[in-house]
Amino acid sequence: MISNKKVYRLCKAMDLLRPQREKRIQYPKKLARNRIITGSNQLWEMDVKYGYIEGEERFFFVLSLIDVYDRSVIDYHIGLSCSGSDAVKTLQRALLKRQQFEQANKPVIWTDNCPQFISHAFEAACERFGIEHERIPPRTPNMNAHIEAFHRLLEEECLGRMAFDSYKEAYQAVMEYKKFYNERRIHSSILDLPPHEFYKKAQTESLIIKEVRV
């Protein structure tokens, strides 16, 4: 008969051999704070919008990342699903396009509290990339005004005007609209220039626009 002491030692040894569960890091929630934006790559906003495919009777996702100062849609994700990993890839591509990984002062990223942005994958990536992630309070979409304004244009000038028969058709339409928005659609807030043109000019010229307060 095995004594209670031996049973205790055996159980303890088994616990030591059993793989230990990893402790999940808890990232502190940072609320968006008021800022004055004076140039590109200081504040980016990110949000998710839905579109509908009539021919397939299902929704698709459009995740966009915009620069508050120059209004460019730097990168985006279009898909039948949208996860925290998709948000991470979008942010990573944007950082590469704007060559921000080498910068000491990287952009602050503002999002709402959608599942993609409160996910462990997204928070861990922001930490890894050296990005400060701030979240706007619930039910305050006006605090993400620039990305909300872009998605409103996307709805009025693209999604709301077309009945898509397939996901392929919807994907192509959104891609074409984003290209039009960045390269041809003028904005009064950036000297009546398209976002990409304004961004390029601002790299070599001193452009004066109305102060951007958020």
TrEMBL record:
Molecular function per GO: nucleic acid binding
PROSITE patterns with a match to the protein in the record: INTEGRASE
InterPro entries: Integrase_cat-core, RNaseH-like_sf, RNaseH_sf
Superkingdom of origin organism: Bacteria
Integrase catalytic domain ranges (all copies): 24-203
Biological process, per Gene Ontology: DNA integration
Name of the molecule in the record: DDE-type integrase/transposase/recombinase
Organism name: Fervidibacillus halotolerans
